[in-house]
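Appendix B. Raw example, untouched.
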Amino acid sequence: MSNTVRVQPDLKFVQELQQVGGESLKKCYQCATCSVACPLSPADAPYPRKEMVWAQWGLKDRLLNDIDIWLCHNCGTCSDLCPRGAKPGDLLAALRNMAYRNLAKPTCIGTWMSSAKYLPILFLIPAILYMAIWVMRAGVLGTAFPLFAAEGHELKVVADGAVIFGGLFPGDYFIDPIFGAVFLFMLICFGGGIGSLLKSFQTMPKTFIVGRGPEPSFVVCLIDTLKNEVAQHSRFKNCGEEEKDTQRYVGHLFVFYAFIALMIVTGTVAAGHWGGAWFLEHVLGLEGGFAGLLAFLGHTPMPLWSPVKLLANVGAFALIYGLMKLTSRRTALDAAKSTSNWYDWYLLTVIWGIALTGLGSEVFRLLGQPVLAYPTYYLHLILVFMLLAYLPWSKLGHVVYRTVALAYARKIGRLPMGELK
C-alpha cells in the first residue's frame, strides 16, 4: 500500500518568484526538453525540469536548498528550445536572485537590492558620506575645486597646481578607512552568506561513485574548482555554441581578469602606502631599498609609465571590452525566450559607471580640469562603494556563492573532479 504525500504549495513564494524573473513558469508542461538540451546538467536528476515542477508546486524549501540552481550558468539553451516559452533559464536565475536577498545578513540590504524603487537609498548612503567629506575639505581648503603643489610631504593649494584627488579626499583619514571598513563588512557578510548556503546543502543526497575512493575534503574540491572552472571559465565556454554564447564567455573572462588586475593594483598601492611610506619609513625610520620601493609603489598620482599604472589602465580597458560584449549580448536577447531583470541591469550599470568614471577621472586629472575631475571622482567613489558594500546581495555575489556550490557539488559527487570536458 503506497503512502499518501500531501503537497502544500507556498502560493506567496510562487508570486514572489514570478516577480523576480520566473513569470513564465506556469507555461511549462513537463516535456523535459530543457533537461535534455542543457549542455551542463548531470545525467542523474538533471535540471531544470525538476525545478520547474517544484516551482509550479510552490515548494520553496526544496528550491532554495537546491544546489542545482547554482550549477546552472544560464546560457539560455533550455529557454531557446522550450516549445512553450516557459523560460526555464530565467526561472533558475530568478531563484538565485531570491537567494541573494536572504543568504547574507542584514537582509534589509537584500530587500533594497531587489527593486529599482530602493535605488535612491543605495545611492544616497555613499553620496551623502562622500559629499560630507567634500564639503568639509572645501571649507578647510577654501575651494571645492583645488589645485595642489607638493611641498615636501605636504600639499599646498596654489593657483597653477595640479589636480590631486588625495588632496581633496585624503586617503589616510577618509578614503582608506572607509573602504577598509566596507571591505571588512563585505567579508563578514559573505562569511555569513556562505555559511547559510552550505547549511542549506546539508539535505542534498550524496552520489556514490564506484571507484571514486574516499570523499575529498571541501578545501581540495574548492582548489579543484578554482583551477579547473573559475580560472578557465570552462562552464561558460561549454555552455552553448552560438555567437551570443561566445560573447558571454569572452565578456565574463575579460571582466573577471580585469577585476583581478585592478585588485592587484589596489592591493599594491595599499601595501606600498601603508607598508612602505607609513610603517617602514615613518614608524621604523627606514629609507631606501625595499622600504623606498614600497613607498614608491604606494605613491599617487602615479606617472603613466609606472608598471602599476600600466596594469591599472590595461585592466580598465579590458573591463570596458568585457562589458561591451556582455551588454551587446544582453540587449540582443529575444524577449520571447529570455529576458533581463533588475539584477542584471543594476550590476552592468554600476560596473560601467566604475569603468567610465575611473578613466574619466584620470583623463580630466591629466588635462588639469578640476571642475570635471573632482565630480567624476566623487561619482567613482560612490559607485565603488555600491559595488563593494552591497556585493553579497548583488548578482556579482554569484562569483562567491557559485564557486562554493561547485566545490560542494564535487565533494558530494554531484560533479566530477578535474577539468570539465
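End of appendix B.
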